[in-house]
Every structure is written in structure tokens, then in C-alpha cells.
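Preliminary data (for renewal application), adenosine-5'-triphosphate complex.
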Amino acid sequence: MSNTAVYSTAMLAESKAKPYNSMNGKLSQPLLQALEKKGYGYMTPVQEKVLTQLPNFKSDCLVRAKTGTGKTIAFLLPSLHSVLASRNGRAGDVRILIVSPTRELAMQIKAECDMLTSELRPAIECHTAFGGTKKDQNLKAFLNGRPTVLVATPGRLNDYLSDQYVAEKFSNLHTLILDEADTMLEAGMCFSATMPPNIKPVLSKVLRADHAEISTVDLNETPTHELVDQYSVIIPTISSTFSSLAALIAQERQRKPDALKAIIFGTTANGVGLMYDLFKNLLGNEIKVYELHSRLSQPARTRTTEDFKNTASGLMFASDVIGRGMDFPNVDLVIQVGLPSNGEQYVHRVGRTARAGNNGRAVIMLTDREKYFLAVNRHLPIKPYTIDISATAAQATPAVEQAFSGVEESAKQKAYQAYLGFNKSFCKNLRIDNTGLVTLANEYAHAMGCPEPPMIDKSVVGKMGLRGTHGLNVGVVQRAPGGGRGQGGGGAPRGGGQRKPAQSGGVPNGGTSNGGPRPNGSAGSKRGGRQGGGRNKQPA
Ligand SMILES: Nc1ncnc2c1ncn2[C@@H]1O[C@H](COP(=O)(O)OP(=O)(O)OP(=O)(O)O)[C@@H](O)[C@H]1O
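Predicted structure:
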């Protein structure tokens, strides 16, 4: 399903975009036929520039264009065309390697590639390789098949390349594409909406010195889309987060009572899981509520991605596994709760709405302490939210408290721990010391309805550098078998949070691996597929 063809074709035609049929004879005919079948009659600006301004389709190239403007097709078309035109290399070799920062984006790129190659006879194969899936099965299909195109995430790609036999299949590589290159290079052709200056020196290792540079973004212009109205809501303290979010969602739902489709980003996977639990209790009878983050099993992530792509309305609570590149049709609204890691992350999240020419809205909700983000990122077109939601937030408090009484204590414990871990790295910006951080986290716990601060395992406290900090409830956290998240779903407290004497020293099952300042951080598994912690290399 796609919202884009109808809009884009009309809008692109109106804006005098170049029609794809002008590429007859220059681009492989079956590729053009596939575009026509899909209803993509005109090039988006980035596609036009890549297809008409590159010295040739084999040129190294750095491309920068705003989010949601069709970069995927812009890199797939020239690389597919030139591989089809060259046709040398052994059958079964990978000719185009696309490195993607997340699994969800890898699957989306494969879908776009399959669409473009659907008219080719014989067909060419596009494979994926990413974590959370059965490696042996994927590898067998990869080795026995003819994976002309491979879309991979860095960890699994590294696995493949470290096996010499498997690496052989890459020896005739024609094109390397780094999608979302700025994240990829923290870790051919490079494509991104943002390009922080510290990435530039690394680019010279990937691209030839004479590489082409294509940008559809004025360098002084903000990379967010002009079609997104962006607002900030400043709340006095963290303790009103949940009631303010409830009030904000209620306010935004009034704009589209029957069919709001929104993504709500949180800062950590477990914090997102908690918001999902809360809002499922609060609004689950009125609107579909989804969660997507790294603590879910891969099948659950894949299913939710598909469901949310296809739904007309719903609230998706998400971490940065879908912060970049993901194309969910018709998202009306993006809400960010808490600090994004930086301005680029803010921009990419906002880019999940107003895609392919649709309008969208974005709201960032920050506490008074966190509002420095707006000053630091003054170039972003964020205006104060036009409606004062403080009164409705106060009215929403009893319902939020009631909904929290049905949320598992272990979910609150994990969200609390993740909050500490995430904000530890922002202490300086927030102008707080360790005691101040714990005070904030305890306010957050209070807002979740915890009568006292949830217990933190003493080893986690050590890893976070919070040993001896006043206000922490330190002990040895025991997880229920299987990682501490129950299988049932009835909301009864279980799992984490049982107290044992701190000196007993037993390392809890899976509870200690994410204590540091990395976003999205503590362990657990959950009904509906939330997983045990620590092993996931994916962001968020
Ligand atoms: N020429 C076109 N005509 C109509 N729709 C198009 C065209 N090109 C791309 N689209 C559609 O526009 C949407 C956005 O494209 P895409 O996901 O490639 O954006 P992007 O620039 O990579 O965004 P991001 O920076 O967020 O990764 C997709 O649904 C895609 O299929």
C-alpha cells in the first residue's frame, strides 16, 4: 500500500518535474516499466539530480536531500542500471551492497528494490542480512542463491565478511551504498538528509577524491521539511510528563478525531515500552496502540512495522529503530518526548511525517530543564505550541494514575533504570550532578505511580557511576525466569524489583548490561515479544 503515488505524481507533475519517460534509452527499460506500473511518472528533485547531473551512473557520489524525498529510488536506479548494463562478474556474486543502519530500513529498501526489478526477466535477487533472524538459514539462501543485491546492517555484514568463503561473494562488488551515511560512518555512494561536519574527513576513505556531490538542500537551510509545522511544549518538570503527553495526544486527536496516525518517540527502548503499556491501558479501547523498539523480538518488530505501514490510524510508541529512513504512509504527527541525542536525530524523527509531499506536524515535549535543546538548535523552525495544555494535563492525571496501576512493576523498574542511564550523559547540559539526576529519576518514578524509587541492581549502579548517590534504592534485582518480563499480560506485578541483601552478590539474569549512558538501555523480555537485554547491536 502506498499513499505516495497519487500525491506525488500529481504534485510532481504540477511542479514541472521531469517525467521518467524522458529517460527512455538512458535507463534500462524494465526499470522504467516498473516505475510506470507503480505510478511513479515523475522524478523527485533528488532523483532528477542524481539521474541527470552525475557524470555517469558509476560515479562516486555524496547525496544530501531532505527526509522523505525519494533517496532510496535515487540510489537504486543508477546502481541497478549500471549493473544490468555491465552484466560481467560471476553469477551469484553480490554486485550492489547497501548498508543500512537498521533492520527495518533494510527490509524497506529490499521492498523498493524488488518493486524496481519486478519487470526484469530473468529476475534478479535482492537479499537481506541483519541480526535477530536465523543466520544459518539466511546464509544458506545467500550462498546458494544469486544475491545480485544485498541490503545488510553493519553487524551481520561484518559476520559475513569475516568468513573468507562468504566474503568471496563480494569480490566483484560494483556499487557500495551507505544509506543514512552519517550514522553509518560513525561506525561508493552515500545518501543522507543530514551530514554533520565531523563526518566529512571519514568520507574521503569511502569516496574517491573526485566524487560528485549532489544536494537538494540549501546548506544554510534547515533540513526538515517546510511541510512540517513544528512546535515545542515545555512542561515544568518530569513529573508531569505522562499527564501532559495524554493531554497533548487528546488535543492533537481533535484535529483528526477518527483517523490520527502518529509516532511518539521516547528516549530509551524501555521508556518507550512503558509509554506503550500506559497508553494501551489509557486509550487502547479508542485507538490502536503499537510499540516498536529494540527490546522486541525481530518477528514482533517485523509484524508491527507491516501493521503500522498498513493502518490508517493509530499511535506508535517508538525508539530510534525507526528514527531514520522508515517510510510509514500518511503519518500526520510526530511527537518527541524528552531530549533527542542531537539536532540531527530530531530532524530525522521529524522526517517520519510529511513524506512524499504530504503535510505533517511535529511536537517536541521537553521539561524546563531540557529546553536548552531549543536554544542550541535555534536554526530549527520550532515554535511554541499554540495551545496551553497545562489545565487539561491536570485533568488527565487521575486517568493516567489509574492506567499506571495496571502496568507491571518490572516495566516501571526498567524504564526508571533506562531513564537514569540515558540522562547520565546529559548531566552537564541539564546542569545537575548525580544527586540531581537521581532526584529527577525519582520524580519520574513517582509519576509512574511508584510509591518508592524502583530498585536498581548494585552492579548497574556501579556501571552507571552512581555508587553512593543519595536517593537510590540499591539491591540485587532478581528477574523472573526468561528475563523478567512475564508471559501473561494481566498486568500483575512480577519479575524485577524484589529485594535481596545487597552483599549477596549474585548477578541478576540479564539485568546489568545496559547501565551506561547509551540510549535505550536496560534489560528484559516481555509478553508480545519484548526480549532479554544486552545482545542487541541495533540502535535503540
Ligand atoms: N518519483 C516518485 N514518485 C512518487 N513517489 C515516490 C517517488 N520516489 C519515491 N517515492 C516515494 O516517496 C516515499 C519516500 O521515499 P524514501 O523513503 O526513499 O525517502 P528518503 O528521502 O530516503 O527519506 P529518509 O531521509 O527519511 O530516508 C516512498 O514511499 C517512495 O516510494
